[in-house]
């Protein structure tokens, strides 16, 4: 009678696990076991607890959805003619219904001829290990496909080395994986300036700043300075004194806005990007004024006499805070 109840309970749990998996939830089981080892663990001694002999308490389903950007990213690749394949260590029931789905063991048990025939049709490989991923990559390359693989841990190093293009993506760098990758994708903490903003910095802000300095009139102070020797370094001590503090200040300011700006100023990601770029433009204007008189304490000396300098500075501020941004500075302030 006891065995019958055990079978019934086991069947019930299996049905529950399948039901949880069919709803795309991760199933986690809870169990306990009283043992001497458990007491030793509490006292700080590392021991191995045997997995058998444990009492099952229950199961729980946990939702682990994809990032919102994944769907658009996959669609973009598919529209460009890229065939996307997903490797997952999850149960086959948890894999999305996105075409041919196969268990890794089944793919491994195929003959070489069967693998070469079916590898193009496979879209999702469940229960996959590094060796299974490597096997599929080798089959794809044998069929003259250009294979790009995205990895994020040390287990992916072998398949990234085998692929034509290895892309490493992760928050913390893993040296083994990075060494075997061709492209390292920056993590989320990198300053997220869009392409137009980067072009604006290079072509507009820097160019206009050069014109601003070119309009500065020479002064008699220049004739009191000694000639510069050909052996003197390109960057003088005065220049380094101005460059280093300004660089450290800008890095600290922009990283602070990037990391904590969303919570401090209650902004979404798009507004944060605009805020970062606007702050950067203002920093450049500040540095532009600060660089007028490198050896002088009064950087505003006779600045009102150079109308071109003032006009260019205003143009940089106005255009830089409106044209290349998704939001204007007025919207950011609001």
Automatic annotation (TrEMBL):
Keywords from the named record: Magnesium, Membrane, Metal-binding, Transmembrane, Transmembrane helix
The keyword Ubl conjugation appears for this protein: no
SUPFAM superfamilies assigned to the protein according to its UniProt record, in alphabetical order: Calcium ATPase, transmembrane domain M, HAD-like, Metal cation-transporting ATPase, ATP-binding domain N
What GO cellular component is one of the record's annotations? plasma membrane
- InterPro entries linked: ATPase_P-typ_cation-transptr_C, ATPase_P-typ_cyto_dom_N, ATPase_P-typ_TM_dom_sf, HAD-like_sf, HAD_sf
Where is this protein found?
A: Membrane
Query: Where is it mostly found?
Result: membrane
Q: Which Gene3D superfamilies match?
A: Calcium-transporting ATPase, cytoplasmic domain N, Calcium-transporting ATPase, transmembrane domain, HAD superfamily/HAD-like
Task: Output the superkingdom of the source species.
Answer: Eukaryota
Q: Name one Pfam family in it.
A: Cation_ATPase_C
> One MF term from GO for this chain?
P-type calcium transporter activity
Boundaries of every Cation-transporting P-type ATPase C-terminal domain copy: 191-319
Q: Does the keyword Transmembrane helix apply?
A: yes
Which protein, by its recorded name, is this? P-type ATPase
- Tell me the organism's taxonomic lineage: Eukaryota, Viridiplantae, Streptophyta, Embryophyta, Tracheophyta
């Amino acid at each position: 009678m006891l065995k019958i109840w055990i079978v019934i309970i086991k069947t019930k749990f299996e049905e529950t696990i399948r039901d949880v998996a069919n709803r795309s939830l991760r199933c986690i089981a809870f169990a306990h076991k009283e043992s001497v080892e458990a007491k030793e663990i509490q006292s700080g001694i590392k021991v191995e607890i045997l997995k058998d002999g444990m009492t099952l308490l229950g199961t729980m389903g946990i939702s682990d959805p994809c990032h919102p950007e994944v769907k658009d990213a996959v669609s973009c690749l598919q529209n460009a003619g890229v065939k996307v394949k997903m490797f997952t260590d999850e149960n086959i029931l948890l894999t999305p219904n996105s075409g041919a789905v196969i268990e890794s063991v089944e793919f491994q048990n195929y003959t070489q001829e069967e693998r070469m025939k079916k590898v193009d049709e496979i879209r999702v490989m469940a229960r996959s290990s590094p060796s299974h991923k490597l096997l599929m990559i080798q089959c794809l390359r044998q069929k003259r496909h250009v294979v790009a693989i995205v990895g994020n841990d040390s287990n992916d190093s072998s398949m990234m080395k085998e692929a034509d293009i290895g892309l490493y993506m992760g928050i913390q760098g893993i040296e083994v994986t990075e060494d075997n990758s061709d492209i390292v994708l920056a993590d989320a903490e990198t300053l997220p300036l869009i392409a137009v903003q980067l072009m604006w910095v290079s072509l507009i802000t820097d160019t206009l700043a050069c014109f601003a300095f070119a309009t500065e009139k020479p002064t008699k102070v220049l004739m009191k300075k000694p000639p510069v020797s050909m052996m003197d370094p390109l960057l003088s001590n005065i220049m380094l004194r101005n460059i280093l503090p300004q660089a450290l200040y800008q890095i600290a300011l922009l990283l602070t806005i990037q990391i904590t700006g969303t919570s401090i100023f209650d902004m979404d990601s798009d507004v944060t990007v605009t805020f970062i770029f606007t702050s950067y433009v203002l920093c450049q204007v500040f540095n532009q004024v600060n660089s007028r008189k490198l050896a002088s304490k009064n950087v505003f000396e006779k600045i009102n006499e150079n109308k071109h300098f003032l006009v260019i500075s205003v143009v940089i501020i106005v255009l830089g805070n409106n044209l290349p941004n998704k939001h204007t500075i007025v919207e950011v302030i609001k």
